[in-house]
Write a structure and sequence with these properties.
Oligomer: single chain
Strand content: 15-25%
Number of strands: 21
Radius of gyration: 23 Å
Number of helices: 15
Shape: globular
Helix content: 25-40%
Number of domains: 2
């Protein structure tokens, strides 16, 4: 059973720091140097100084971005910039946002969740991880002994039983509120009602949790637990390193949005639409839509309306023509991805990479396709207009049932299969890994 706990978070004292919007930040992996500088300038207490402290030319093993983050954290705790809540709480967290002209609200709550190795309990991964980000996050954990940003977890709850209880409670309370650099509005309510907390924990206990985002941080937390246990610092199963900070969202929540991840493909010779159709023809049924931006919109609207995973869109930059291609050779995927399940092989992103980018295009052109990843159709059409690639591919997003099926089978999805938008803010709550 998943072990969910209320906890005593550290939070900003708004009487000392002012507007919550000035001190929060997105997670480290989407902060570029320009945004990092902007966050530094917003407030001397912005959480970027903990989450992604600047590197300095004079950094050494004993004075670096991690030691500076630890120093800021100690100073902010000492000066009551960050104050620990007196009562164990769950923290209800709504995000209001807009995508492609439509408004959404994603609803969930922040809690401590007991760590389990993937495959050994009720917590499942769906993405591969890389050594570099894990080493970075581990050094930060060593320095701060604090979960600074939440992992994003999903749980099945078709009737929204969990959130109904929390929604009813917070509807009568004023939230804390912050707006991020993308215009996403985050609302937060601490919940201390022990009856509601017990009910929520009871409902969640039998349910699996699927990691949507934060795989590197989750694996880093597991490593940190192992190290602390080996050092004799974990005295029992209730010690704080056994738990990590997680945002939990029901998989049927109307605001749970998985954006597509389209590919801008370079490293191949310029292709005409006719040449691409010829290359794809043995394994795809190809239909020409037209040329220009309007054809790109028509292609994507058709893919969205179709709703299947076997339909891709391709724009050849050399002539501006857009085509749709429906895959009809499952045997090719079975041959070239024999070590993966039928569910994995049926994903649109798997078909694109295994069949097209790793096989058909290199074989026919001698090129080595390289991808840049974008999420909005406007980003695709702008890149095509600027001739920033040779080929654009429109890819339908994986759906929640794909995440559940593939991750539940202890299999990892292909890279860039899912993009859960928006990212969760860093700085709303902090989970201490020492003390209570």
């Amino acid at each position: 059973m998943a072990d969910i706990r209320a906890f005593r978070a550290f939070r900003y004292d708004l009487g000392r720091v002012g507007n919550l919007s000035d001190v929060v930040a997105p997670p480290y992996d989407v902060i570029d140097p320009a945004l990092q500088q902007a966050l530094y300038a917003q407030s001397p207490y912005n959480v970027v100084r903990l989450e992604l402290n600047k590197e300095e030319p004079t950094d050494t093993e004993t004075e670096n971005r991690y030691t500076r983050a630890a120093r800021f954290l100690r100073d902010w705790q000492r000066d009551d910039i960050l104050v620990q809540d007196s009562a164990r709480s769950l923290y209800v967290y709504y995000q209001d946002f807009e995508v492609e002209g439509r408004r959404y609200t994603r609803r969930g709550f922040l809690a401590r969740v007991r760590l389990e190795p993937f495959g050994a309990g009720r917590i499942y991964a769906h993405e591969e991880t890389l050594a570099g980000p894990k080493a970075d996050r581990l050094r930060l954990l060593h320095a701060t002994a604090m979960n600074l940003s939440p992992i994003f977890g999903l749980y099945p709850d078709p009737d929204s039983e969990v959130m109904k209880q929390l929604d009813a409670l917070v509807s009568r309370m004023l939230p804390l509120q912050a707006t991020d650099h993308l215009g996403v509005v985050s609302r937060l309510w601490p919940v201390t009602d022990q009856h509601v907390i017990s009910s929520v924990i009871g409902l969640l206990g039998p349910k699996p949790i699927f990691i949507a985002d934060g795989h590197h941080r989750y694996e880093t937390s597991l490593r940190y637990l192992e190290e602390r246990r080996a050092a004799g610092e974990v005295c029992d199963d209730e010690a704080p390193p056994h738990f990590t900070l997680m945002m939990l969202v029901g998989m049927s929540d109307p605001g749970l949005l998985i954006l597509p991840t389209h590919r801008l493909i370079s490293g191949i010779p310029d292709l005409s639409a006719d040449r691409l159709a010829e290359i794809l023809a043995p394994h795809f049924t190809v239909e020409r839509i037209g040329a220009g931006e309007q054809a790109a919109h028509e292609t994507w609207e058709t893919i969205e309306a179709d709703g299947s995973q076997d339909l891709l869109g391709f724009g050849t930059v050399a002539d501006g023509v857009w085509q749709m291609a429906r895959f009809r050779s499952p045997q090719l995927m079975a041959e070239r991805a024999a070590n993966h399940s039928p569910a994995w092989r049926s994903l649109a992103v798997s078909i694109l990479h295994v069949a097209v980018l790793d096989h058909l295009l290199p074989q026919a052109t001698g090129g080595k396709p390289e991808c840049k990843y974008v999420h909005l159709l406007r980003e695709v059409t702008d890149a095509v207009a600027a001739r920033q690639c040779q080929l654009a591919a429109l890819v339908p997003p994986a759906a929640m049932q794909h995440v559940e099926q593939i991750a539940g089978n202890l299999e990892k999805m292909p890279p860039k299969s899912t993009y859960f938008y928006p990212k969760l803010l860093t700085g709303l709550v902090f989970n201490p890994l020492k003390g209570s």
